[in-house]
Amino acid sequence: MSASKGLHPEAAIGPIAVPAATPAWRRGLYLLVGIAVALAPLVLLESFHLFQLTMAVIMALAVLGLNIVCGYNGQISLGHGAFFAVGAYATAILMSHFDWSFWATLPVSAVVCGVIGYGIGFPALRLAGHYLALTTFSLAVAVPQILKHKSIEDWTGGVQGLFLVKPDPPAGLPLSPDQWMYVVTLIVAGACFLLAWNLIRSRIGRALIATRDNPTAAEAMGMDIASLKTRAFAVSAMITGIAGSLSAVAIEFVAPDSFSIFVSITLFVGMVVGGVASILGSLFGGLFVLFVPNIAEAISKAAPGVIYGVILILFLFLLPDGFAGLLRRIGQRLRIRP
Amino acid sequence: MPTRRHILAAGIAGLAAPRLARAEDLPGVTATELRIGNTMPYSGPASAYGVIGRSHQHFFRMVNDQGGIAGRKINFITYDDNYSPPKTVEQVRRLVEQDKVAFLFNTLGTPTNSAIHRYVNQRKVPHIFLSTGADKWGNPQEYPWTIGWQPSYRTEAQIYAKHMLEQKPGAKVALLYQNDDFGKDYLNGMKDVFGAKFDSAVRTASYEVTDPTIDSQIVSLQSAGAEVLMTAATPKFAAQTIKKVSDIGWKPLHYLTNVSISVGSVMEPAGPERGIGIITSSYLKDQTDPAWANDAGMNEWRGFMAKYIPDGDLKDGNYTFAYGIARNLVFMLEQCKGDFSRANIMQQVANMHGFQPPTVIPGITVNTSPTNFHPIRQMQLARWTGSTWERFGGLIEGANV
Question: Which residues form a coiled coil (chain A) (predicted)?
Answer without folding.
Answer: none
